[in-house]
Amino acid sequence: MFDFQPATKPTMYFIGVTTTQSSIMKVFPLWAEELGIPAVMKGIDLALHAPAEEYRRVVRFIKNDPLSMGALVTTHKLDLFKACKDMFDYIDPFAEKLEEVSSLSKLDGKFRAHAKDPISSGLSLEHFVPESFWKDYGGEVLLLGAGGSSLAMSIYFTQERFGANVPKKITIANRSLPRLRSAKEKLAGLNPKTVFAFLHCPTPADNDALVKALPPYSLVVNATGLGKDAPGSPTTDAVDYPRNSLVWEINYRGHLIFKDQAERQAKEKNLHIEDGWIYFIHGWTLVIAEVFHIPIEGELLNKLSKIARGQ
Protein backbone atom coordinates (compact mmCIF):
# COMPACT_ATOMS: atom_id res chain seq x y z
CA MET A 1 0.00 0.00 0.00
CA PHE A 2 1.38 3.43 -0.93
CA ASP A 3 2.15 5.51 2.14
CA PHE A 4 1.43 8.99 0.70
CA GLN A 5 4.42 10.53 2.48
CA PRO A 6 5.67 13.81 0.92
CA ALA A 7 8.53 13.24 -1.51
CA THR A 8 11.95 14.28 -0.22
CA LYS A 9 13.50 14.49 -3.71
CA PRO A 10 12.07 14.92 -7.22
CA THR A 11 9.86 11.87 -7.74
CA MET A 12 8.03 10.40 -10.69
CA TYR A 13 5.32 7.82 -10.06
CA PHE A 14 4.22 4.73 -11.95
CA ILE A 15 0.51 4.11 -11.43
CA GLY A 16 -0.34 0.54 -12.36
CA VAL A 17 -1.33 -2.88 -11.06
CA THR A 18 1.94 -4.77 -10.53
CA THR A 19 4.51 -2.00 -10.80
CA THR A 20 7.26 -3.77 -8.85
CA GLN A 21 7.42 -6.42 -11.59
CA SER A 22 8.12 -3.89 -14.31
CA SER A 23 11.68 -3.53 -15.55
CA ILE A 24 11.24 0.26 -15.43
CA MET A 25 11.95 0.13 -11.69
CA LYS A 26 15.51 -1.00 -12.52
CA VAL A 27 15.80 1.01 -15.71
CA PHE A 28 14.64 4.42 -14.47
CA PRO A 29 17.65 5.09 -12.19
CA LEU A 30 19.97 4.36 -15.12
CA TRP A 31 17.93 6.57 -17.44
CA ALA A 32 17.85 9.35 -14.84
CA GLU A 33 21.64 9.22 -14.59
CA GLU A 34 22.01 9.35 -18.39
CA LEU A 35 19.56 12.26 -18.62
CA GLY A 36 21.07 14.13 -15.69
CA ILE A 37 17.82 14.05 -13.72
CA PRO A 38 18.25 13.89 -9.91
CA ALA A 39 15.00 11.99 -9.54
CA VAL A 40 13.60 8.69 -8.25
CA MET A 41 10.63 6.56 -9.24
CA LYS A 42 7.98 5.04 -7.00
CA GLY A 43 5.21 2.62 -7.95
CA ILE A 44 1.59 3.00 -6.91
CA ASP A 45 -0.43 -0.21 -7.32
CA LEU A 46 -4.21 -0.03 -7.55
CA ALA A 47 -6.69 -2.82 -8.18
CA LEU A 48 -8.29 -2.99 -11.61
CA HIS A 49 -11.25 -0.60 -11.74
CA ALA A 50 -10.50 0.76 -8.27
CA PRO A 51 -13.04 3.00 -6.49
CA ALA A 52 -13.04 6.59 -7.75
CA GLU A 53 -11.87 7.95 -4.39
CA GLU A 54 -8.70 5.88 -4.56
CA TYR A 55 -7.81 7.47 -7.90
CA ARG A 56 -8.63 10.92 -6.53
CA ARG A 57 -6.48 10.40 -3.48
CA VAL A 58 -3.48 9.47 -5.63
CA VAL A 59 -3.98 12.38 -8.03
CA ARG A 60 -4.59 14.84 -5.21
CA PHE A 61 -1.33 13.80 -3.56
CA ILE A 62 0.75 14.16 -6.73
CA LYS A 63 -0.88 17.47 -7.61
CA ASN A 64 -0.28 19.05 -4.22
CA ASP A 65 3.11 17.58 -3.23
CA PRO A 66 5.89 19.98 -4.37
CA LEU A 67 8.51 17.32 -5.16
CA SER A 68 6.09 14.93 -6.84
CA MET A 69 6.81 15.82 -10.46
CA GLY A 70 4.27 13.68 -12.28
CA ALA A 71 3.38 10.13 -13.24
CA LEU A 72 2.90 7.58 -15.96
CA VAL A 73 -0.47 5.86 -15.82
CA THR A 74 -0.97 2.38 -17.25
CA THR A 75 -4.03 0.09 -17.09
CA HIS A 76 -6.00 2.76 -15.16
CA LYS A 77 -5.96 5.40 -17.93
CA LEU A 78 -9.72 5.46 -18.48
CA ASP A 79 -10.85 5.00 -14.89
CA LEU A 80 -8.42 7.58 -13.49
CA PHE A 81 -9.46 10.18 -16.06
CA LYS A 82 -13.14 9.62 -15.36
CA ALA A 83 -12.62 9.93 -11.60
CA CYS A 84 -10.25 12.90 -11.69
CA LYS A 85 -11.07 15.01 -14.77
CA ASP A 86 -12.04 18.02 -12.69
CA MET A 87 -8.66 18.02 -10.92
CA PHE A 88 -6.60 18.91 -14.02
CA ASP A 89 -5.76 22.47 -15.06
CA TYR A 90 -4.92 21.41 -18.61
CA ILE A 91 -6.13 18.42 -20.65
CA ASP A 92 -4.58 17.79 -24.06
CA PRO A 93 -6.79 17.14 -27.13
CA PHE A 94 -6.03 13.40 -27.25
CA ALA A 95 -6.99 13.05 -23.59
CA GLU A 96 -10.23 14.95 -24.25
CA LYS A 97 -11.08 12.78 -27.27
CA LEU A 98 -10.21 9.46 -25.65
CA GLU A 99 -11.29 10.39 -22.12
CA GLU A 100 -8.10 8.83 -20.77
CA VAL A 101 -4.82 9.96 -19.27
CA SER A 102 -1.39 8.32 -19.44
CA SER A 103 0.79 11.25 -18.34
CA LEU A 104 0.48 13.54 -15.32
CA SER A 105 2.85 16.51 -15.23
CA LYS A 106 3.26 20.06 -14.00
CA LEU A 107 4.21 23.17 -15.98
CA ASP A 108 3.95 26.87 -15.10
CA GLY A 109 1.86 26.10 -12.05
CA LYS A 110 -0.62 23.98 -13.97
CA PHE A 111 -1.37 20.31 -13.34
CA ARG A 112 -1.53 18.69 -16.77
CA ALA A 113 -3.09 15.54 -18.23
CA HIS A 114 -1.90 14.07 -21.54
CA ALA A 115 -2.85 10.96 -23.49
CA LYS A 116 0.38 9.86 -25.14
CA ASP A 117 -0.79 6.55 -26.58
CA PRO A 118 -1.78 7.83 -30.04
CA ILE A 119 1.81 9.04 -30.37
CA SER A 120 3.62 6.11 -28.72
CA SER A 121 1.50 3.45 -30.46
CA GLY A 122 1.99 5.22 -33.77
CA LEU A 123 5.77 5.34 -33.36
CA SER A 124 5.73 1.65 -32.42
CA LEU A 125 3.58 0.63 -35.39
CA GLU A 126 5.82 2.57 -37.76
CA HIS A 127 8.69 0.44 -36.45
CA PHE A 128 7.28 -2.80 -37.93
CA VAL A 129 4.35 -2.07 -40.27
CA PRO A 130 5.80 -1.71 -43.79
CA GLU A 131 5.33 1.60 -45.56
CA SER A 132 2.15 1.70 -47.69
CA PHE A 133 1.10 -1.65 -46.16
CA TRP A 134 -2.62 -0.86 -46.12
CA LYS A 135 -2.68 0.75 -49.55
CA ASP A 136 -0.65 -2.05 -51.15
CA TYR A 137 -2.37 -5.08 -49.63
CA GLY A 138 -5.83 -4.04 -48.43
CA GLY A 139 -5.68 -5.84 -45.10
CA GLU A 140 -7.74 -5.18 -41.98
CA VAL A 141 -7.01 -4.48 -38.32
CA LEU A 142 -8.39 -6.55 -35.44
CA LEU A 143 -7.93 -4.97 -32.03
CA LEU A 144 -8.65 -7.38 -29.18
CA GLY A 145 -9.73 -5.23 -26.27
CA ALA A 146 -11.62 -1.92 -26.18
CA GLY A 147 -9.40 -0.06 -23.72
CA GLY A 148 -7.29 3.02 -24.21
CA SER A 149 -4.60 1.38 -26.33
CA SER A 150 -7.10 0.22 -28.96
CA LEU A 151 -8.73 3.62 -29.11
CA ALA A 152 -5.35 5.32 -29.44
CA MET A 153 -4.33 3.00 -32.29
CA SER A 154 -7.63 3.65 -34.05
CA ILE A 155 -6.98 7.39 -33.97
CA TYR A 156 -3.43 6.87 -35.21
CA PHE A 157 -4.46 4.60 -38.12
CA THR A 158 -7.18 6.91 -39.43
CA GLN A 159 -5.29 10.19 -39.63
CA GLU A 160 -6.05 12.14 -42.81
CA ARG A 161 -2.32 12.69 -43.41
CA PHE A 162 -2.02 9.03 -44.48
CA GLY A 163 -4.23 9.58 -47.52
CA ALA A 164 -5.23 6.22 -49.00
CA ASN A 165 -2.81 4.28 -46.78
CA VAL A 166 -5.33 3.47 -44.04
CA PRO A 167 -6.90 0.12 -43.09
CA LYS A 168 -10.13 -0.53 -44.97
CA LYS A 169 -11.66 -1.91 -41.77
CA ILE A 170 -10.88 -1.84 -38.05
CA THR A 171 -12.68 -4.30 -35.78
CA ILE A 172 -12.61 -3.79 -32.03
CA ALA A 173 -13.63 -6.87 -30.03
CA ASN A 174 -14.24 -6.87 -26.30
CA ARG A 175 -15.61 -9.31 -23.76
CA SER A 176 -17.73 -6.71 -21.92
CA LEU A 177 -20.34 -4.45 -23.50
CA PRO A 178 -19.89 -1.15 -21.58
CA ARG A 179 -16.32 -0.58 -22.80
CA LEU A 180 -17.40 -1.54 -26.33
CA ARG A 181 -20.22 1.02 -26.30
CA SER A 182 -17.86 3.66 -24.93
CA ALA A 183 -15.29 2.92 -27.65
CA LYS A 184 -17.94 3.29 -30.34
CA GLU A 185 -18.97 6.68 -28.98
CA LYS A 186 -15.42 8.00 -28.67
CA LEU A 187 -14.35 6.91 -32.14
CA ALA A 188 -17.38 8.29 -33.95
CA GLY A 189 -16.59 10.59 -36.86
CA LEU A 190 -13.10 9.38 -37.75
CA ASN A 191 -11.79 8.88 -41.29
CA PRO A 192 -14.65 7.71 -43.59
CA LYS A 193 -12.15 5.64 -45.59
CA THR A 194 -12.04 3.17 -42.66
CA VAL A 195 -15.09 1.15 -41.63
CA PHE A 196 -15.36 0.33 -37.92
CA ALA A 197 -17.00 -2.72 -36.34
CA PHE A 198 -17.50 -3.11 -32.58
CA LEU A 199 -18.14 -6.72 -31.62
CA HIS A 200 -19.02 -8.36 -28.33
CA CYS A 201 -16.74 -11.39 -27.96
CA PRO A 202 -17.00 -12.80 -24.44
CA THR A 203 -14.83 -15.89 -25.07
CA PRO A 204 -11.44 -16.58 -26.68
CA ALA A 205 -13.22 -18.84 -29.18
CA ASP A 206 -15.21 -15.82 -30.36
CA ASN A 207 -11.94 -14.01 -31.03
CA ASP A 208 -10.57 -17.05 -32.87
CA ALA A 209 -13.48 -16.78 -35.31
CA LEU A 210 -12.68 -13.13 -35.99
CA VAL A 211 -9.00 -13.90 -36.63
CA LYS A 212 -9.88 -16.71 -39.04
CA ALA A 213 -12.21 -14.43 -41.02
CA LEU A 214 -9.54 -11.78 -41.66
CA PRO A 215 -8.05 -11.38 -45.15
CA PRO A 216 -4.31 -11.88 -45.70
CA TYR A 217 -1.99 -8.99 -44.81
CA SER A 218 -3.99 -8.03 -41.74
CA LEU A 219 -2.89 -6.93 -38.26
CA VAL A 220 -4.05 -8.56 -35.02
CA VAL A 221 -3.27 -6.83 -31.72
CA ASN A 222 -3.58 -8.13 -28.18
CA ALA A 223 -4.63 -4.98 -26.34
CA THR A 224 -6.51 -6.80 -23.58
CA GLY A 225 -3.84 -6.83 -20.86
CA LEU A 226 -4.03 -10.63 -20.74
CA GLY A 227 -0.53 -11.94 -20.32
CA LYS A 228 0.56 -9.00 -18.15
CA ASP A 229 -2.19 -7.64 -15.90
CA ALA A 230 -3.97 -10.99 -15.75
CA PRO A 231 -3.03 -14.51 -16.91
CA GLY A 232 -4.22 -15.96 -20.19
CA SER A 233 -4.72 -15.02 -23.83
CA PRO A 234 -7.63 -13.52 -25.76
CA THR A 235 -7.29 -16.40 -28.27
CA THR A 236 -7.12 -20.17 -27.91
CA ASP A 237 -4.43 -22.56 -29.10
CA ALA A 238 -6.67 -23.27 -32.11
CA VAL A 239 -6.42 -19.71 -33.44
CA ASP A 240 -5.83 -19.69 -37.21
CA TYR A 241 -4.04 -16.62 -38.58
CA PRO A 242 -4.36 -15.30 -42.14
CA ARG A 243 -1.22 -15.53 -44.24
CA ASN A 244 1.32 -12.71 -44.45
CA SER A 245 -0.16 -10.93 -41.47
CA LEU A 246 1.25 -8.93 -38.57
CA VAL A 247 0.69 -9.97 -34.96
CA TRP A 248 1.36 -7.49 -32.17
CA GLU A 249 1.51 -8.48 -28.52
CA ILE A 250 1.69 -5.04 -26.90
CA ASN A 251 2.95 -6.51 -23.62
CA TYR A 252 6.66 -7.12 -23.23
CA ARG A 253 6.68 -9.02 -19.94
CA GLY A 254 4.67 -11.76 -18.34
CA HIS A 255 3.61 -15.14 -19.73
CA LEU A 256 2.78 -14.01 -23.26
CA ILE A 257 0.57 -16.91 -24.35
CA PHE A 258 -0.94 -14.88 -27.20
CA LYS A 259 2.52 -14.37 -28.69
CA ASP A 260 3.40 -18.05 -28.20
CA GLN A 261 0.23 -19.11 -30.01
CA ALA A 262 1.09 -16.97 -33.02
CA GLU A 263 4.72 -18.07 -33.11
CA ARG A 264 3.70 -21.71 -33.49
CA GLN A 265 2.32 -20.89 -36.95
CA ALA A 266 4.65 -18.03 -37.89
CA LYS A 267 6.69 -20.00 -40.41
CA GLU A 268 3.76 -21.72 -42.10
CA LYS A 269 1.71 -18.51 -42.41
CA ASN A 270 4.63 -16.09 -42.94
CA LEU A 271 3.64 -14.01 -39.93
CA HIS A 272 5.59 -11.10 -38.52
CA ILE A 273 5.27 -11.16 -34.73
CA GLU A 274 6.17 -8.17 -32.60
CA ASP A 275 6.25 -7.81 -28.83
CA GLY A 276 5.72 -4.67 -26.78
CA TRP A 277 9.33 -3.61 -26.24
CA ILE A 278 9.37 -0.61 -28.59
CA TYR A 279 5.93 0.40 -27.27
CA PHE A 280 7.37 0.25 -23.76
CA ILE A 281 10.32 2.47 -24.73
CA HIS A 282 8.24 5.10 -26.54
CA GLY A 283 5.53 5.04 -23.89
CA TRP A 284 7.96 5.75 -21.08
CA THR A 285 10.27 8.21 -22.80
CA LEU A 286 7.38 10.37 -24.06
CA VAL A 287 6.04 10.71 -20.52
CA ILE A 288 9.46 11.25 -18.94
CA ALA A 289 10.08 14.00 -21.50
CA GLU A 290 6.76 15.61 -20.51
CA VAL A 291 7.30 15.30 -16.76
CA PHE A 292 10.87 16.65 -16.75
CA HIS A 293 10.54 18.96 -19.79
CA ILE A 294 13.43 17.49 -21.78
CA PRO A 295 13.46 16.25 -25.40
CA ILE A 296 14.17 12.53 -25.85
CA GLU A 297 14.63 11.48 -29.47
CA GLY A 298 17.16 10.33 -32.04
CA GLU A 299 20.43 8.97 -30.70
CA LEU A 300 19.44 9.69 -27.10
CA LEU A 301 16.33 7.55 -27.52
CA ASN A 302 18.41 4.74 -29.02
CA LYS A 303 20.87 4.97 -26.14
CA LEU A 304 18.10 4.73 -23.55
CA SER A 305 16.70 1.67 -25.34
CA LYS A 306 20.11 0.00 -25.24
CA ILE A 307 20.46 0.80 -21.54
CA ALA A 308 17.05 -0.77 -20.87
CA ARG A 309 17.90 -3.86 -22.94
CA GLY A 310 20.88 -4.45 -20.69
CA GLN A 311 18.69 -4.98 -17.65
Write a short abstract of this structure.
The chain has 311 residues and is of the alpha/beta class.
How much is the radius of gyration in Å?
A: 19 Å
Structural class: alpha/beta
Beginning-to-end CA distance, first to last residue: 26 Å
Which stretches are low in confidence, meaning pLDDT under 50 for 5 or more residues running? none
CATH overall fold name of the largest domain: Rossmann fold
Topology:
Blueprint: E1 11-16, H1 24-35, E2 40-45, H2 52-64, E3 68-73, H3 77-84, E4 90-91, H4 93-98, E5 103-107, E6 110-114, H5 117-128, H6 133-137, E7 141-144, H7 148-157, E8 169-174, H8 177-186, E9 195-200, H9 204-213, E10 219-222, E11 246-249, H10 257-263, H11 266-269, E12 272-274, H12 277-292, H13 298-309
Parallel strand pairs: 1-2, 1-3, 4-6, 7-8, 7-10, 8-9, 10-11, 11-12
Antiparallel strand pairs: 3-5, 5-6
Helix pairs in contact: 2-3, 5-7, 5-12
Tell me what you see in this structure.
The chain is of the alpha/beta class. It folds into two domains: 11-115 and 278-309, Rossmann fold (3-Layer(aba) Sandwich); 119-275, NAD(P)-binding Rossmann-like Domain (Rossmann fold), CATH 3.40.50. Helices cover 40% and strands 18% of the residues. The chain has 13 helices and twelve strands. It has helices at residues 24-35, 52-64, 77-84, 93-98, 117-128, 133-137, 148-157, 177-186, 204-213, 257-263, 266-269, 277-292, 298-309; strands spanning 11-16, 40-45, 68-73, 90-91, 103-107, 110-114, 141-144, 169-174, 195-200, 219-222, 246-249, 272-274. The strands form two sheets. A six-stranded mixed sheet has the order 2-1-3-5-6-4, with helices on both faces. Strands 9-8-7-10-11-12 form a six-stranded parallel sheet, sandwiched between helices. Helix 5 packs antiparallel against helix 12 (277-292). The longest helix has 16 residues, at 277-292. The radius of gyration is 19 Å and the shape is globular. The two termini are 26 Å apart. The mean pLDDT is 95.
